[in-house]
Sequence to fold (415 residues):
Amino acid sequence: MIMRRFCFFAFALLASVSCKHYTPEYVTFPDDEKSPFYVLKTSVTDVMDESPWEKVDFGLSVDEEETKATSASLNDIFRGVVSSFMSTRVCEVVGTYESTDIQGNPITVSGKVIYPADGNIKNMMIVSHYTIGANFECPSETFSFEGIYAAKGYMVVISDYIGFGVTKNKIHPYLQAETTARNVIDMALAVREWAKKRNIKIDSDEVVLLGYSQGGATTLHVQRLLETFPEYMGEFKIKINYAGAGPYDVARTYDYSVKVDVTGIPCAVPMIIQGMSIGMAKPLDMSYFFRDPLKSHYDEWLNSKKYTVPQMSALIGADKLSMILTPEGTDRSKPETARFYLELMENSIPRDYVPQAPLFMFHSEDDGTVPFINSQLMQRQFRYMADNIEYDFGHYGNHQKGALKFILKVLMIID
Fold:
């Protein structure tokens, strides 16, 4: 029963929980003209009122009694945890900042900052969010689930990523590692300067990094860029990075899905192919990879930003790769597929990278969506850094059940 409840709730996490549909006016406030983080909308809310654990679209078929029992149990857990914090009232600030797109050109991106209304801020928490599909799910449009950490004294900084918020008309460069990590870091840099200008005091200069699934891979790339890229080195001191179940090796993740001929998130496969294509000098031919009906409708289903992850997967209507992709699209001996595979490797964690700052890695060994081999490979790569890295690997169920375990684990252990 407990595991069924975990599964029920965690699917909602992966669908990028949506609590309140904001319609921010994307106009810069005059008094923020000289700030690197341009404020578009501000509000003060209560995490208990927002209740992201209640206002979710689970996207599951379960019987009514099980739904009621699961919802009540999880509501009690999260309400109890959050209500034990000193303050649950938080400030939400939607804004824009300058970053770069995948070609290195300047681009204006949006995101949200959430911090305790009482002004007692321990650290900045730089969040890399998990996979979403609809624009109303992006941080600037809703109360993101990671906002609950603001109730524990953190300034939570969450980028929409390119493809959402003010850039919703652009294709999201899904799993394009360096570009997305830059977008995340650039927002944190802009918010830091904005906070100084507003005399918002943060007790420590150290930052906490966090992300699960797509966010898990992104947050490790954020750490990599902060530690190894000259333009970012020295900008932030990392207190700890909480990385959960990320596709750190995108190529191995794709290999696994092809081998078992099944995926826990059907829409993620075409999103990966499209995302890799954006970064290539010669884009991939989607009709080469996609079968119908996906081939005829992928632009509407993936890029209109009208559909959530469960809705996109339902539209695709299959969870077997052999029903989603052409035989050529999974055959690495074919030149077009080989080009795609090389791009996957380029967007994986480099095999010579070893983190310097403390790292907490979480993964369920039963994960069939982002296979556990991702974290096994990282553990092998980081094996000489045992004193700096903590691993929490166990049989926690599938990718969605693991999401719940990760969120609760961080809630309970974070300072």
In short: The first helix runs from residue 2 to 14. Residues 250-346 form one domain. The chain has two domains: 2-248+351-413, 250-346.
